[in-house]
């Protein structure tokens, strides 16, 4: 359950992204600056943390050992995740984006067959392909139904182009984030701690964010003071605190696809935090009845995931005790 609570806490800080990205878009800020500034601001905080923990040398050695895969999966986990997220903020309110983002839970379950687990056999160590956990898939589909419900009122009130630009990038981000995160865990095999992993992935993608910033400077000019300030808050809240908490949670259960899916399901609470945050900060109205039903369905799905994780943990503990006796 520790991993579940870490996941929920991370979603509280992640929700800041949806609220402030929407705020910056409403103020006329470019998504290019919103995306790149977050990662620029993350670097000094993470460097200070890793340096204090005396982990910089170990981190750079891991990066140098396999730079190609390191860059690829960092790009997938960070660039293909955050750039679409900030782009979509121009077309949908933050709470709706946070709701659609819950498709990452579906993605997390469906990605299981792309990964292997080491198993000790009599003939030696073998790699066994992970299976889609059926119980997790069923509960995930409940959450997906909730996502569909919250989108129905929006679909009837906006044109198709706006709807697609608000949804399709989120779908890309929803698959990219768990894929990149899990591939990095596979690549590193526990060689780096959470802070080292977040910093190394950030540094690997800095050239991409510099490209974003240069293009933004040439096309829309420099960011406003307000956008810089809000990006700094997003960097600390979502980029440093939330990402670190979430990676800590996934590291705790990285060898169990069912539990890993449950941790990823905790991100559904971002929807609630983002909705209330926008109501307080941006003064948006309470979503309609159908959207509220959808939110309720998502919460129920997340609760079922947590319950399933607790039951699975008890069964595993019981089995381990029986084997010892």
From TrEMBL:
An example of a Pfam family matching this protein is: EmrE
Give UniProt keywords alphabetically. Answer: Membrane, Transmembrane, Transmembrane helix
Residue ranges crossing the lipid bilayer per the database entry: 31-51, 63-83, 95-117, 137-156, 162-180, 201-222, 228-248, 292-313
The protein here is known as Multidrug resistance efflux transporter family protein
Specify the species.
Answer: Sporosarcina contaminans
């Amino acid at each position: 359950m520790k991993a579940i609570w870490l996941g929920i806490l991370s979603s509280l800080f992640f929700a800041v992204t949806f609220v402030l990205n929407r705020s910056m878009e409403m103020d006329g800020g470019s998504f290019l600056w919103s995306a790149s500034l977050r990662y620029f601001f993350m670097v000094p905080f993470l460097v200070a943390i890793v340096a204090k923990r005396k982990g910089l040398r170990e981190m750079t050695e891991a990066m140098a050992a396999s730079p190609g895969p390191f860059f690829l999966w960092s790009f997938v986990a960070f660039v293909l995740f955050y750039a679409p997220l900030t782009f979509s903020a121009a077309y949908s309110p933050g709470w709706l984006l946070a709701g659609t983002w819950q498709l990452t839970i579906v993605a997390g379950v469906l990605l299981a067959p792309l990964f292997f687990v080491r198993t000790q056999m009599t003939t030696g160590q073998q790699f066994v392909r992970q299976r889609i956990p059926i119980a997790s898939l069923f509960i995930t589909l409940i959450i997906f139904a909730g996502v569909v419900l919250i989108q129905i009122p929006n679909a009837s009130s906006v044109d198709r182009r706006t709807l697609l630009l608000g949804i399709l990038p989120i779908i890309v981000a929803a698959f990219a984030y768990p894929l990149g995160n899990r591939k990095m865990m596979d690549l590193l095999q526990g060689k780096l701690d959470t802070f080292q992993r977040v910093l190394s992935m950030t540094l690997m993608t800095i050239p991409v964010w510099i490209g974003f910033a240069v293009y933004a400077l040439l096309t829309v000019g420099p960011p406003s003071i307000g956008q810089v300030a809000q990006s700094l808050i997003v960097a600390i809240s979502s980029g440093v605190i939330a990402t670190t908490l979430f990676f800590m949670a996934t590291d705790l259960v990285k060898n169990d696809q069912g539990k890993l899916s449950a941790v990823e399901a905790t991100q559904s609470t971002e929807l609630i935090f983002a909705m209330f945050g926008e109501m307080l900060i941006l003064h948006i109205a309470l979503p309609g009845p159908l959207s509220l039903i959808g939110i309720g369905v998502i919460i129920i799905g997340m609760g079922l995931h947590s319950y399933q994780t607790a039951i699975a943990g008890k069964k595993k503990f019981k089995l381990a005790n029986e084997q010892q006796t």
